[in-house]
């Protein structure tokens, strides 16, 4: 004997869990339509709409910022729903210095993925700024898990030092994925002896660096900084540096040997280089 039980439920009575699952599988246009169709659906579909935010123009960026700021004192501030923010394909206006960009990031406490691409970083503030000013607002995203900084091959790039990486991970404890087109500071004079004592960032499993400057001591640092690294990619196609002498290479090799736990969990490694880059310059 088979007994079938059917439960009839009005569309407006569907549980929020089911509505959220439906919303996750709809297009942006359909999510918006559903949010306007039924008052009982509004919360689930609005939340999904805000989950991924793209600001591809300066005007759209301003509108998003104004909307999030205006909702801060409401019962449900929209900023808490944003998990992914993509800012790309536009050159930030010099007038952006009048817009509290850092305030926007502070309104996104649950931001997990940040993509910065094709942006004129020099216009974020009134003057051309060094890396600390860029990292200042990135470091406010304490829940960030994925960070991408994309820059043109010949365009403006921020320069990062060991201290910048250390400060980044002090603030972003959950960061697991880093893809960055940056310049890596070449000078290790004052920091080389501190590398073995660097605080490991255990959460990072993927590192993808595209740099115009390369010093093999960076790989030495990454081995200490990221003990759980699974995937490592280095793009040094446009790098320019002096060839290492035999003695320099031997010294660096001895430094690598001093860390027997280096890259123990590495599963994939890829390097992109030009014909002038000698494999022996990697380490």
UniProtKB/TrEMBL annotation:
Pfam families: F-box-like. Residues 8-53 form the F-box domain. Gene3D superfamilies: Ribonuclease Inhibitor (3.80.10.10). PROSITE patterns: FBOX (PS50181). InterPro entries: F-box-like_dom_sf, F-box_dom, LRR_dom_sf. It comes from the Eukaryota. This is F-box domain-containing protein. It comes from Phycomyces blakesleeanus (strain ATCC 8743b / DSM 1359 / FGSC 10004 / NBRC 33097 / NRRL 1555). The lineage of its organism: Eukaryota, Fungi, Fungi incertae sedis, Mucoromycota, Mucoromycotina.
């Amino acid at each position: 004997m088979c007994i079938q039980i059917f439960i009839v439920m009005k569309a407006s009575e569907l549980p929020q869990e089911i509505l959220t699952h439906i919303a996750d599988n709809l297009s942006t246009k359909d999510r918006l339509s559903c949010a306007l169709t039924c008052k009982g659906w509004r919360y689930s579909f609005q939340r999904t709409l805000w989950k991924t935010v793209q600001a591809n123009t300066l005007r759209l960026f301003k509108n998003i910022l104004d909307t999030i700021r205006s909702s801060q004192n409401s019962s449900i501030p929209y900023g808490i729903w944003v998990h992914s923010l993509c800012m790309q394909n536009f050159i930030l206006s010099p007038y952006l210095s009048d817009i509290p960009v850092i305030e926007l990031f502070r309104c996104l406490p649950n931001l997990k993925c940040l993509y910065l691409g094709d942006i004129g970083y020099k216009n974020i503030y009134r003057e051309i700024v060094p890396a600390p000013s860029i990292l200042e607002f990135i470091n406010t995203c304490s829940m960030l898990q994925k960070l991408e900084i994309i820059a043109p091959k010949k365009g403006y790039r921020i320069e990062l030092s060991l201290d910048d990486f250390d400060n980044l991970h002090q603030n972003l404890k959950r960061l697991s994925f880093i893809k960055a087109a940056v310049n890596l500071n070449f000078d290790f004079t004052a920091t080389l002896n501190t590398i073995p004592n660097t605080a490991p960032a255990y959460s990072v499993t993927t590192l993808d660096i595209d740099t115009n400057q390369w010093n093999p001591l960076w790989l030495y640092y990454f081995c200490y900084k990221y003990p759980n690294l699974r995937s490592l990619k280095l793009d040094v196609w446009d790098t320019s540096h002096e060839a290492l002498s035999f003695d320099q290479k031997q010294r660096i090799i001895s430094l690598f040997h001093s860390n027997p736990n280096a890259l123990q969990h590495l599963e994939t490694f890829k390097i992109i280089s030009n014909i002038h880059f000698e494999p022996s310059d990697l380490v």
